[in-house]
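Here is one chain, start to finish.
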Amino acid sequence: MIFLLLALQAAPAAAPPPPPERPIVVPPKAAEVTGPIEQVTLGPVFREPFLCMEHPFGQLAWAGDALGTDCMVGGGIDGMSGYMRLYRTDGKTNEDWYGWRAEVLAPVAGTVVGAFAKPGANQPGTMGKPPAAMIQILTDDGIIVVIAHVTDFRVKKGDRVTAGQVVALDGNNGMARSPHVHVGAWRQKDAIPLQIRWDLRAMAAAAK
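Its structure:
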């Protein structure tokens, strides 16, 4: 026992293991916007018709959250009759929702710089706990676009993606109470959050 202890004391200290690589880009606090709000135009995140609810100015503080939008697939229209709805029956199960496990498209071309998966799904109507599963894409002109609450990733960190490529399926995880995709964008160099606008030509092409 003494010899073992002496041997351990004499042995050179092993180098500490390298810290684990972060699976996502940790977003900074969004920079304060005092002038006009800048915009970014993105391609669609779904092939199906979808509705988005905006996060108004000042509601959320972190880059990727600030000025983001929550998008849900609509359905229920049969030809010229019916009206758009978000779920088929009472919406109490994820399978009721038109967007549940719909293919999620990359809204930009770029490199996947973050991919964080989260197993499981929330019960509709009940808010889950953070963090959400997310994919972060860095464009060639320095904008990070995040799509969150997704599941069943089709890409991994380091992959190069094109706009319109399927990157995941629509999920319901993190701080969500129904199947949807949060989309946010910020300028990497200065954490300026960007208001999202949709490329309607790309939306028409994706629906074909």
